[in-house]
Amino acid sequence: MKARVQNTPSRGLWLYMPGEGNEKTPMAVLAAASAVGAEFHPFGPEAAGSKLRGLLEGSEPVAAKNPPDQPVLLLQGFDRKGLDSLLKALREKAAEIGAEPVALKAVITPTNLDWTVEDLARELKEEHRLMHGQK
Question: What CATH number belongs to 12-131?
């Protein structure tokens, strides 16, 4: 029997933070990333106009015209079990450190690779608003 090598991306977390002042959130996400063996890539408004593909490839950052006003967490390379472990670690580490949980999260997919962080955040914010019955 031949072994098949799957082209699975390595686990990674990209955390967008809108600005200075909340160091607890990045600390919690870094601790969760470490707990599940994922790479951690923080970034700010200077790269929020970048396409997700560009973030993954390490392309030159593109500033956003209207950067998101809250943190956004992008996930790559997690299967269902790994995703469950990550979400548990995020909850635990946020509670330990006293960080606010990141409400806007998305798995990077072939469909959203060419979206900008700014556009994805806007869509996630709207979905979050609808799911929680906010007007």
Answer: 3.30.429
| Cβ atoms of 73 and 101 closer than 8 Å | no
Q: Show the CA angle centred on residue 79, arms to residues 78 and 84, nearest 5°.
A: 85
Q: Which tokens is 6 given?
A: 């799957």
pLDDT-derived band at 122, boundaries 50, 70, 90? very high
Q: Is the pTM of this model over 0.85?
A: yes
- State how far the Cα of 86 lies from the Cα of 84, in Å rounded to an integer: 5
Q: Which pLDDT score is estimated for 81? A: 96
Q: Let me know: does 41 contact 58? Beta carbons within 8 Å.
A: no
